[in-house]
Structures
1.
Amino acid sequence: MSVDKNKWGILFCPKSGALRPQAKWEKVERCLKERGVLYDFVQSENSNSVERLVKMMINNGYKTIVIVGGDSALNEAVNCLMQLPQEKRDGVDLGVIPNGLMNDFAHFWDIKDNDVENAVDMIINHRVRRVDLGCIRYTNDKNEKCHRYFLNCLCIGLLASVIRQRRRTSGSFGWRKLAFIPSSLLMIFQRLEYKMKLRIDTDVIDRKVMTVCIGNAQGYGFTPSAVPYNGQLDVSVVYHPEVAQLIEGFYLLYSGKILNHKSVHPYRTKEVVVEKAERALVGIDGRVMNTPVGEFKVCVEQEVINFIIP
């Protein structure tokens, strides 16, 4: 069954830990009706259902798919789109109304968490830009060759542990920064390091590293200069700082100046080869993934998704 090409397909992903998860959809629905937008709406049961529902919308002919969700839901949507042949993928435009624990890719485009009216108006105006995706290519524990795409960032080491802890504390701390603060305290009290070997262009890093962030966009503040349309990835390699430097690091992170920290070493590249990352978790767009087995590569694929921007 095909649909009117002007009708939006909207996927609502309730925010985990919210006191009234339906309140956001009620606000969105009211705004859509006021503007006379044609749309069909489905709600995800859980994070595992997002890809299936996006695929259903594509198969039913929706040309504008709007995710009311956060970075993780967008990640599922783009990975679904990347399964399509290019000619079919080029006919689908992806938009977002932020409703996640962290909405960093929306924030990159200055789409505010609580400004539903402007987000809806932006999609109505329908300015589309082709954006890049990062891609990790790896082998899983079944010796299968796998790959996964990301819009915001991939992180290795302590930052991935922070993401896992943040998801655990999000039910108690509704505001995104309050949810991030207790998780970030792991940096002080655990002081974890990981033996890594990385190849970034001609540079080889073979030493203990606290965390690595590979950003297609802002990367939770660790790759503040990254943009998803220049065909490159920004990489921040963070060595182990002293406690006093950690406190300085929090200030620089929240002020968008983390690259000024002496323990942060920035790079810009098209590919990162991770030959070794002992015991380190890997996170991708706000969710911890199954840790790759052995060497893996992270690269960029240029201008592969149509994204609706302000």
Note: The chain is about 30% helix and 35% strand.
2.
Amino acid sequence: MQQLFNFNLEKISSSKKELLDREKNLKLFLEKGLPNKKDENWKFSDLNLIVNKNFKKITNNYDFEFDKKINFIKDFEHNYIILVNGSLKSSNLKFEEKTKVLIQKLNSLDELNYHTGNNLYSLNKALSSGGFDLVIKENYKCKKPIIIYNYFSSNLDDKMINNSNKIKLEQNSELTLIEYNISEKNRFLKNTFENIEIEKNSILKNITIQKTKSNGYFYKHISGSQGYNSSYQNFILSSGLKFNKIEVDMNLQKEKCNCFILAGLNLAEGEHQEIKTRVNHLAPNCKSYQKIKNVLESDSIGIYQGKIFVKDIAQKTDAYQLSKALILDDKAEFNAKPELEIYADDVKCSHGSTSGSIDEDAIHYLMTRGIELSKAKKLLINGFLSEIFENVQEEKIKFFLERIINEQIDAI
């Protein structure tokens, strides 16, 4: 393990105390190492095997240049935050009231209070180069979406990025947040921990998009809590990454919460992606809805592990979970592990998983209408994936997401 990693902690530490804290956490990480299939949470994505297979030496990233002009999205008006290699570079919140939307660099991980069972958190605390802290103040609804331009520089080969973020919506507030990942073809690791707090009567719509193909290996853990009558909507469109695992752990702590997690992934040769969710119903009269869709080409691997937990006091829970895979090649692989853990008796909960090949009758029907085979397949794939954005109410954003799906399908 130590032969694989060569980390410099002094250059990212501002004091002797910070250096000692980083060294302590690095030692904790090295004692256990990278997660592997012996851990039930990583049984389908053996990170230790994947990293050792694709990297000979890994160093931490502490020096970079902002060496590329970012082409801003022109499809709709928006505010923006620019991250470079996970660190806050700049922001422009021109459409919002300055005192109502606050953004600053996040330096300390102590406030996140993650459980220590995740060894990648020890690694993150040892090597974190910061992230952002975003607060939407009480009784404020953002006038325009905020796009996070998450840019990765061109000198990241065989390097690791560690960052952490905090997002807080105070009561009666609303935000649409779009994470837009832009990376080069270099091979690197990214390890991110994010904490989300949604207070009473607030709404967070979170959309993740991968703009281009990437040789990056990404891990992201999202831990969140929801207050009374709050709403969390998470849309994931992360096709194009060499490896990606997103874990979402949401606590519905008060009555009348709703939580939606929807993903549409179009995976090509050599790509491996996993979405792992745990939605904890801890209060009565809450609703959760999860739908994960994968289109698998060539030797790609898609995974979904999802758990719905219902506490004994969480009566009147309405929870739905479904994963579906469209397998286009015999070499492709899809693994699903849906789970229900229910301690209340007055609930409506269901889960399911299906996989299969493309509908040959539908292909034949389209071809009889003069549509060539390759285009017919793309039309069916588009229809399969686009369903996850049916609940996006902003028409310009919905049109933009549909265009991104089309571009990703055309790239296959």
Note: The radius of gyration is 21 Å.
